[in-house]
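User: Sequence for Heavy-metal-associated domain-containing protein below. Tokens please.
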Amino acid sequence: MEEQTFKIPNITCGHCTHTIESELKEVPGVVRVAGDVAAKSVTVAYEAPATRDAIVATLKEINYPAAE
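Assistant: Structure tokens for Heavy-metal-associated domain-containing protein:
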């Protein structure tokens, strides 16, 4: 299992992290998602078939793109 933290500049509140967590948990292979409002980040634990690219694409699709 892999775990990665993504910086999300437009996280402003708990609702933002809740939305991100809900959407990413629907990606097949995502095991755990934890948002951090103060750090403007989300940590995702995942395994196949989920990929970093699939997670980044989902974040972009829901208007919370990861910073490069």
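The chain has two helices and three strands.
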